[in-house]
Amino acid sequence: MNYLVLLIVTMASFIAPFMGSSINVALPDIGKEFAMSAHELAWTATSYLLATALFLLPFGRLADLYGRRRFYFYGMIFYPLSSLFCVLSPNTTCFLLSRFLQGVAAAFIFGTGVALLLEFFPQNRRGKVLGINAASVYIGLLLGPYLGGMLTEHFGWRSIFIFIILIMLPIPWLIHRYIPPDILQDIPQDKGPAQRNFKGLIPLHLFKGNSCFQYATLSAFINYAATFGIQFIIGLYLSFIYDLSPKATGEVLMVPALFLVLFSPLAGTLSDRLNAAMMASIGMAITFVGTLLLLLITLQAETMPLYSLLGALAFIGLGPALFTTPNTNAVMSAVDRNFYGVTAGLLAMMRITGQMFSMAIATTVVSVVVGKVAISHHVRRELILSCNYSLAIFMAISFVGIFTSLKRTKFN
Questions:
Q1: Which helix (DSSP H) or strand (DSSP E) does residue 129 occupy?
Q2: How many CB atoms lie within 10 A of CB 128?
Q3: Any idea what the CATH number is for the domain that residue 308 is in?
Q4: Does the pLDDT value for residue 265 go beyond 90?
């Protein structure tokens, strides 16, 4: 039974990152069909992320109060339905609205999946299952660009959403069949009306006197803020400095994702036996080293071979792999089980806001340094400077993250 629950949750955890990474490949085709402006095309991703960030905490807390299985089931119905709306969209407005609804559906899943998973596994196996779940997320990120590109090339961009719908079809039945509703009956419910109004949805007392929770959630934001924009920056660097094709660029950028897939389960298992806070801090330190190596390589762009970049990117994958699962384990172990849902939602919100912040840094630096001219080989020097400045900022962020991760109370 327990491992069937793990299978269900990991299947769902694969879907959202797969959708996010695959849809990026299809953006040119989507923009062409709907005659979107650059601003409208940017909202294809932004509307999804914004909706998810807005509803994560409320849905996570409501799931704690009214049933995690119930909210997870709602998400598994709503997500493929909103994907169908995307397939049937006749114009830009309908498509962007459908993407917003898809983000709302994702909030149902992100806000409850990890919390539901932890209900079925004891604390001494928590890190292992969190690591397996994290690996499924990174597999989605790894496969998204390739499968998305293949589907778009042969069947059109709508086939990505159809593929998601087909994958998700059996999940509601699996939830109904293998996750019994009575699993939630032993979770104490707040009966008073004051506990169930909107003010009770965000339990601020979790932050009071709980240094592990405070610094671990802050470190989660820093981890994504320091790493997510690197893929964008290095993608430009590979395309215009090393003159790699899109396919070759994608293959190089697989290196961090591959290390994330390989080492996340191991990090989760080790976090059950070792100090999870210390493991997460080591992961952040490795990320700092990787960012430093990338900066040194881009400072000598004309002389450094490509294999040196591959080695640095391996650190960019290994660091977050050692950080993410132990940090999640530490956070979830620092709160009462009645707040698993809202805590999982908070961690997911930290991830999304960190990613948005990281991309804002990268795109702002490129816009300021390169200017309003089209990105091409004619602005090679400016692109190198953009990489240098962005990586220096990301390195500084990860350096701060080492200390915020170490600052938390020792995890027991």
A1: helix 126-155
A2: 22
A3: 1.20.1250.20
A4: no
